[in-house]
Amino acid sequence: MVNTYKTTLIADAGGTSTTWYLSPSHTFSTYGINPFQQSEEDIFNLVHDFRQASLDKPEMPRVSAIRFYGAGCTPEKIGTVKKALSQAFEGTVEDIEVHSDLLGAARGLCGTSEGVACILGTGSNSCLYDGEKIVQNTPALGYILGDEGGGAVLGKMFLNALLKGRLDKTVADAFYEEYGMNQAAIIERVYRQPLANRFLASFSKFISEYRSNPTVNCIIKENFTNFLNNNVKPYNCKRLNFTGSIAFHYAEILREVAEQNGYEIGKITQSPLEGLAEYHKK
């Protein structure tokens, strides 16, 4: 029997992965979506394949609306994503909204209350939110010019220390044994192949395993300190909320660094989706 229950599909799209939420029992993951890194056709193909594999089944709730929150969804790029979504769901869904991942983080973390919302995932971002809209934002600028605190910059800082001989030998040896990459291979992957940000962020798991090592711990703390000083300080607000894989998996160190810099942390979530589901119910 076909399920005719109508529901909203909520997407949280980052540089590495996209999570699609229909309900607590219907949550899916695909590759990341970012219109600055992918064409409209690339986004359409990814979403179309996801729809066919996961949603076009008799037992699935019928999608009646889409609320897409994504990295790179700036005003000039929202149209690209919305058109790709419209084409992928052509004939079935007309109620589609595309917003920045930052507004998604603010709504997911703060709901309708004012506060500071921060994203620490593959990249990073932050804003001052008044309960309805973003009223102040320090530009993230991407992993080359900015993105302090995020996974790509963490990986960049780690590889810099590795290749310049500033890591403990035990950590360096473990890295080369696990990845089998030399300096030339790393340079090739970063400078001559696409999606270097994902490559750099992929070392977060290894870095986390050695977080107690003094040389690695120092890099993690420096990354978070740079984020607070360069991105959050202008808001003149001492209570912060965080979402994203880096914030979640390094929560203990993040709280320590925040406290040392005079901040108090409220929420830390791996994803804003649970909060966004509550927000859109209202």
CA(first)-CA(last) distance: 29 Å
Describe the global form: globular
- The H-and-E topology, N to C, reads as EEEHEHEHEEEHHHHHHHEHHEH
The radius of gyration is 20 Å
The parts where pLDDT drops under 50 for at least 5 residues are: 1-5
Number of strands: 10
Q: From the helix content, strand content and strand pairing, which structural class follows?
A: alpha/beta
Explain what this protein looks like in three dimensions.
The chain is an alpha/beta fold and 282 residues long. 46% of the residues lie in helices and 22% in strands. The chain has 13 helices and ten strands. The chain has helices at 40-55, 78-88, 101-110, 142-145, 151-163, 169-179, 183-192, 196-201, 204-209, 214-232, 245-249, 251-260, 273-281, and strands spanning 6-13, 17-23, 26-31, 62-70, 95-100, 115-120, 124-129, 134-136, 239-243, 264-269. The strands form two sheets. It has a five-stranded mixed β-sheet, with helices on both faces. A hairpin with a 2-residue loop joins strand 2 and strand 3 (26-31). Helix 3 crosses helix 13. It is globular. It starts with 5 loop residues before the first strand and ends with a helix. Residues 1-5 have low confidence and may be disordered.
